[in-house]
Amino acid sequence: MQDGKEPTQDSLPGRRLSWPWFLVVVIVYAAVIQGVGRLTGVDTSYSDSQFPTTESLVRNALIPIGASIVFAAAVVTWLRWWGEVLHYRAPVRSWVRWVPVSMIAVALIGLNYGHLADQSASLVACLLLLGLFVGVGEELMFRGIGVHVFRRAGLTEGKVALYSSLVFGLVHVSNAFGQGAQALVQALVVSTSGYFFYLCLRVGGVILLPMLVHGLWDVSLISNLVGDEPQASLGMVLVIVLQVVLIVVLLVRRRSIETAPPGLPS
Asked: Residue 261 domain-assigned?
């Protein structure tokens, strides 16, 4: 998208939201998660696991993230952006389809099936629900609202991807309240993941695809951390390797993401 060739914010349906106000919305979003988490959370310092019990997963994750979904949905409703948020029309070249395909495949392969088989049915069910919640909530906020804020500002798709992904990563710094400096590394990794999810949005043309990929990705990562005794798996290596491979591929081919002019191969 080139400056001056797209509709201005005044000509687009719904309310306006400038990027500084979007940052305020993101701060409130993070505050909702952290605040509700502090109100409903339970202490798990006695365990090496992030979610040793079903109760801890529900109270420390499902409830706070559920509240953030309500907040994000309320913002989209207030903006009257549902039509835009649900659909995104910015086609990419055919090779980019391998981003969601590879992420879904590795997420499914990387699930720690053996460890999950030792957990209660309620804990596994809540883990799957957590993946759904994370996928819906974070994609609604960052690939839904965030991407459209920067797109409506007239930025190129490259800048839309960059800025929305950076904000997505930076908001995870809020985890430093519970994880310390580790959250800074997480924020950097999450920023690259945000770019992958952005490409999923463009490949699918609907926000449901990045929601699905994001949810499966997080379930795969968290599948090692539930139960009384967290257990690493070889699947985690695949997740890390794919992350690195995608970063390298996209750095090399970043200029061939946009659709080719007529007559050229895609």
From this structure: no
